[in-house]
Amino acid sequence: MLPAYISHPDCLKHAMGEHHPECPERIGAVSDMLLIKGLLDFMQPCEAPLATEKQLAQAHSSLYIRSIAAQSPKQGTVQVDPDTSMNPHTYRAALRAAGAAVLATDLVLTEGAGTAFCNVRPPGHHAEYAAAGGFCFFNNVAVGIRHALTVHGLERVALVDFDVHHGNGSEDILRDDERVLMCSIFEDKLYPFCGNTPRGANMVNVALPARSGGEPMRQAVSEQWLPALERFRPQLIFISAGFDGHRDDDMGNLGLVEADYAWIAKQIVAVAARHSQGRIVSCLEGGYELSSLARSAAAHVKVLLGMDD
Ligand SMILES: [Zn+2]
């Protein structure tokens, strides 16, 4: 099958207030740009299913899963942390976002989709084993990774995370899981203010100074991510694709541009071609300035589709 494009209308119903940066419009900004650029012509559109409790429990405690379900309001909003809240549609959107990663894994591993891009929200990489936070409820990539390991029986799965914020939730869930290698770059001294000291031997964390631009990022990937990925020989690569390090996005200050996101995708595609039969599952994380988010995501997907020049 064609590379998969996975999303769901439920992801637009979750909203955390009028001025919240993690807004429903993010999904449409990305899908519109993929459409305008002609990229969706080369992808199979798929609706994200609801993740099951059993699938979520591969990455989260059952108590936590039930507490999120129990907090889901019938009306109004419930604040889960200072930046993160639930409306009546949030729980379902969160199940769709995690379900997208599960479906993407299935399509890439058994249907020959090659690659899959999940245009979903809420994002996931700040969600820990038993804690929501940073706009995240369930850790979408971690749920997908554990699905690949336990249901499909893969032995080695890599996660690369280039969001401007460190994926503390993914690290919390996946640390010391020898079947997983996690490579992360993030802006130093930025939310969630951790990651400088990796919490497990399977973590390659690189903190980049603010306003450093694309060159130090490329150097960190070349010198630290790529040798680790070569040694690990992943059978499948997940991407926590956050575009909030773009210079137009005031959520962070890394100063990256579209060409940097295309470059990093090219490196991942090359590793996947060597070790993973080209298999990549990419899930949207951050990216809050709608225009640069859309352009960066399109540059990213274009490379995943092998259409870069
Ligand atoms: Zn972020």
From TrEMBL:
CDD domains noted in UniProt: HDAC_classII_2 (cd11599)
Stated name of the protein: Acetoin utilization deacetylase AcuC-like enzyme
GO molecular function term, any single one: histone deacetylase activity
Entry-linked InterPro entries: His_deacetylse_dom
One of the protein's GO biological processes: epigenetic regulation of gene expression
Record PANTHER family: HISTONE DEACETYLASE HDAC1, HISTONE DEACETYLASE HDAC1-RELATED
Domain Histone deacetylase: 20-304
